[in-house]
Automatic annotation (TrEMBL):
This is dTDP-4-dehydrorhamnose 3,5-epimerase. Gene3D superfamilies: Jelly Rolls (2.60.120.10). One of its GO terms (molecular function) is dTDP-4-dehydrorhamnose 3,5-epimerase activity. GO terms for cellular component: cytosol. Pathway: Carbohydrate biosynthesis; dTDP-L-rhamnose biosynthesis. Catalyzes the epimerization of the C3' and C5'positions of dTDP-6-deoxy-D-xylo-4-hexulose, forming dTDP-6-deoxy-L-lyxo-4-hexulose. It holds the Pfam family dTDP_sugar_isom. One of its GO terms (biological process) is polysaccharide biosynthetic process.
Length: 183
């Protein structure tokens, strides 16, 4: 398993070693032992989530705040997404910076998003299955986020504006400037 830290401290790209032959393939999705050895982080996942989305669905940018903050290990089982993590940790030298990566069933890459990050993804193919492990339980009252098309973050979601499908909740998220004022 290859583990590479992004320019955002604590945010890692994980690439499993895939063993394939004419029958198909096999790979270890996650090993806590290897993860801890390669990152120096102790993690205990307590909740697994999964979504199925059509092309154009954009989920985010979300986070859980306070004692309900979550670290996530995300991956695509079927299809592909553009996955985005935004550092919103106070006093971080990369505060307000984002990292994006395409995750797909072909590349089997995963992204570890630490606590203190906004997270979101845009679905690039129909019937994409997105899976994520969380190190803390979801708590509705701890939800927070930033609007996907914030001009200061300037994220390219790899979708045309007219193709983007948002939840009602995601349409009314605050701007990054409003989010920063509340912190």
């Amino acid at each position: 398993m290859k583990v590479t830290e992004t320019f955002l401290k604590g945010c890692f790209v994980i690439e499993p070693k895939v063993f394939g032959d004419k029958r198909g393939n096999f790979f270890e999705v996650f090993s806590q032992k290897i993860f801890e050895e390669k990152t120096g982080l102790k993690i205990e996942f307590v909740q697994d989530n999964q979504s199925i989305s059509q092309r154009g669905v954009l989920r985010g940018l979300h986070l859980q705040k306070g004692k309900f903050a979550q670290a996530k290990l995300v991956r695509v089982i079927k299809g592909s997404v553009l996955d985005v993590a935004v550092d919103v940790r106070k006093n971080s030298p990369t505060y307000g910076k984002h990292f994006s990566i395409e995750l797909s069933e072909e590349n089997n890459k995963q992204l570890f998003v630490p606590r203190g990050f906004l997270h979101g993804f845009s679905t690039l193919e129909d019937n994409t299955i997105f899976s994520y492990k969380c190190d803390n339980y979801y708590h509705k009252e701890a939800e927070d986020g930033v609007i996907f098309n914030d001009k200061d973050l300037n994220i390219n979601w790899k979708l045309e504006k007219d193709d983007i499908l948002l939840s009602e909740k995601d349409k009314i998220l605050p701007t990054f400037l409003e989010f920063k004022k509340l912190k």
